[in-house]
Design a protein that fits this description.
Elements: E1 10-13, H1 21-26, E2 31-37, H2 44-52, E3 56-62, H3 68-81, E4 85-90, H4 92-105, E5 131-135, E6 147-152, E7 157-162, E8 170-173, H5 183-201, H6 208-230, H7 235-255, H8 259-270, H9 275-295, H10 301-314, H11 322-335, H12 351-360, H13 373-383
Parallel strand pairs: 1-8, 2-3, 2-4, 4-5, 5-8
Antiparallel strand pairs: 6-7
Length: about 375
């Protein structure tokens, strides 16, 4: 047994932990660039905590998922403010923006010098500024990952800025911050969390340590996601989902993802489609496709067992298997009213290009089996 595992320097989890933000931030610097979303949890308590700790704070509010312009404006603001650390407060978009800006503040040039696929792909040579990541949704696990996803509108793609130094210095997860999430966002981000637990578990890079996170996270989601959607004030369910999201981030950062995210990346770049909703739509179909292929590959017997385990945990039944998991996932998608891809403006004519781009996505490399363009096209057609 051997594996390599990396994560945030420090993780604080629990209801009310936001109250500790000021004291923790004081250990990172004196001047904080605070990245927030324009909607979501109110950052006023955080700002008060920072000010009480004697810190100067400059807020940068972003609208939607970060792109090259967001990163560039954030870097300019951070430099003019002389920020010595960055705080991300919000959903995955705010956290990714914070990590990207922190990295670009200490390295010369612009985002395209370092981005994968459409950029020059140069390595970051200087350590990023310290980052404190405070999620206010339960889905992305971005508080413990080493990359930041940026949209590149002119190329209609979303690509990553990636470096081990981009792991946040502090990940502060307070489930109370998710209590105000409306049901549709709770559903989509929760399904994203589930995807980021299932995909690393059946990844070709899975290891014994990430398995522990995935299995526990899947169990939490299966028991609490519907409860959190039905009753947003149910703190135990919200806590389970925040914890599951954290576990998913820990797992994906070290074991990779798969075809769901391989397809979601180009879809997010080509259309204004929320990442969580796209993953939620694709998860049952991709899980089913992978399982059907592996059933016919004798050398994949160990992986077949993993698919069966997913069913046992989702249904809390030792006699359940992958077929029951597939049915459960389709039922959950319907129960949560996850929209089809067509709801995001995607048409049948767009699918070949999405499938082709998906084959080149970095997440596709960790899928348990190699998928073809026709197979991806079939999944997309069913999701439409």
């Amino acid at each position: 047994m051997s594996f390599d595992f990396s994560t945030a320097h420090r993780i604080l989890f629990g209801n009310g932990t936001l109250q500790q933000a000021g004291g923790l931030a004081a250990g990172l610097g004196r001047r904080a660039l605070l990245i927030t979303g324009k909607t979501g949890a109110d950052p006023s308590s955080l700002i008060s905590s920072l000010e009480a700790a004697g810190l100067d704070c400059q807020r940068f509010s972003i609208d939607g998922e970060p792109d090259l312009e967001t990163a560039t404006v954030g870097v300019e603001l951070g430099r003019s403010f002389a920020a010595d650390f960055v705080i991300g407060f919000g959903g995955g978009s705010a956290l990714d923006a914070a990590k990207a800006i922190a990295a670009l503040l200490t390295n010369p040039g612009g985002p395209l010098d370092y981005l994968e696929v459409v950029g020059r792909g140069q390595p970051l040579t200087q350590p990023p500024l310290p980052v404190m990541a405070i999620p206010t949704t339960a889905g992305t696990g971005s508080e413990v990952t080493r990359n930041a996803v940026l949209s590149v509108p002119e190329h209609r793609v979303k690509v990553s800025l990636r470096h081990t130094g981009m792991l946040p210095r502090v990940a502060l997860v307070d489930p109370q911050l998710t209590l105000s999430l409306p049901p549709p966002i709770t559903a989509a981000t929760g399904m994203d969390a589930l995807t980021q637990l299932i995909e690393p578990f059946i990844s070709n890079r899975a290891n014994e340590m990430t398995d522990l996170f995935c299995l526990e996270g899947i169990r939490r989601v299966s028991g609490s996601l519907v409860k959190a959607v039905d009753n947003g004030a149910a703190l135990p369910a919200r806590t389970d989902m925040a914890y599951a999201s954290l576990l998913g981030g820990l797992a994906l950062a070290n074991a990779g993802l798969g075809a769901v995210h391989g397809l979601a990346a180009p879809i997010g770049g080509m259309f204004k489609a929320p990442h969580g909703a796209v993953c939620a739509c694709l998860l049952p179909l991709v899980f089913q496709l992978n399982y059907r292929i592996i059933q016919n590959l004798p050398e994949q017997t160990p992986m077949l067992t993993r698919f069966e385990q997913v069913g046992q945990i989702l249904l809390n039944d030792r006699k359940a298997g992958a077929d029951q998991a597939i049915e459960w996932l389709f039922d959950l998608r319907a129960r949560l009213h996850i929209p089809a891809l067509a709801a995001h403006g995607i048409q049948a004519a767009d699918l070949p290009a999405i499938a082709a781009a998906g084959l080149q996505a970095s997440s596709m490399k960790a899928n348990p089996v190699k998928l073809s363009h026709p197979q991806l096209l079939d999944v997309l057609s069913q999701a439409l």
